[in-house]
Amino acid sequence: MILFVDDEKRRMENYIMELEESGYSVKLCTxxxxxxxxxxxxxxxxxxxxxxxMMPPGKSFNLDDTQxxxxxxxxxxxxxxxxxxxxxxxxxxxxxxxxxxEKFYTEKNCWFFRKINLLEFELxxxxxxxLNKNExxxx
Amino acid sequence: MISLHNPPGVQELFSNLHQAIQVSxxxxxxxxxLDFERQVATLxxxxxxxxxxxxKHCSNNEWQKIEKEWHIIPFTYEKLTRRLDLVSPATEExxxxxxxxxxxxxxxxxxxxxxQVKESPPFQTREIDRLIDFTxxxxxxxxxxxxLSEFQSIGWEKFQQELPLLMETAPGKWVAYRGExxxxxxxSKKEIYKVLKKENYNLNEILVRRIEPLPPPLDLRRYINVVxxxx
Lengths: 139, 231
Description:
The complex is a heterodimer.
Chain A: E1 2-5, H1 9-21, E2 26-29, H2 32-41, E3 48-51, H3 72-83, E4 89-93, H4 98-105, E5 110-114, H5 120-130
Parallel strand pairs in A: 1-2, 1-3, 3-4, 4-5
Chain B: H1 10-25, H2 33-55, H3 60-87, H4 92-105, H5 110-119, H6 126-148, H7 150-169, E1 174-178, E2 181-186, H8 189-198, E3 206-210, H9 221-228
Antiparallel strand pairs in B: 1-2, 1-3
Helix pairs in contact in B: 2-3, 3-4, 4-6, 5-6
């Protein structure tokens, strides 16, 4: 199962549809509190996490700590690593700050993609490669 | 097999739709104009996602020809809907999400829009006021930085000069410049950032590019005319 953490359901629907058509089961959490609960309760079922950066901080994170929600995903990523150090995580974001990109480029088991650079089926291909399911990938 | 250049009926339908939108605009009540724009944008969004969905069926060769444009079109569409979400958001969450988007992807021309929104925001809390200020500050700073980043603009010039040679020696790899100096060529973006981090470079001074042909200039107006003409 893929845990997709993104507050903008309407903008992520096409990605989710493409993933499901490619055979993946996807759990979308639009709220970081729900996502954290799901992560702790069902961690063994999760194969990969797709994580947005700019999201409301919810009750789990405070406003200042996340720069008014601007960096919530970074705090969430740290929580993921407390639970599981090897779980593949795709940071999927509009964030363009090269320092943020560089932080995630150098993390293990972590991939950083800007949303504007990946069309729906390209995200699926990246996930296929990450999960070594290349036979599903086309390019 | 339908020719991509002239699919029978599609051009005509598109032209009729374009005309219908233009004619309709004249009869839309002023207070309904934003709803109308939003509906048109939603319609275009559905068409785009359908078209993009089809892209996975084309060959590698075909894909290389359209890849650049097909990445730009959804971005152009998103830019339009984000602007609509700032002026007439469906929910407070949409409004905030669009401010965040503007922080990262907003352009100089969005500053005027944001200043108008700041004067009469659709939702008003202390956090939203802070976020609007923060967004304006971020866009201003980003464009200031771009203008002032001399190392990067010199690097960009150098990259364009060297591109023909690089295409022969290292096509598909990633290259980094600091001013006129080419400081690294690595097989992937991840590896090049590792090198930059190891060498403690200031990333705001570095230009990182993939070694590939530069895209031809693209006139975006032909994609967004439908919703912006006379608007």
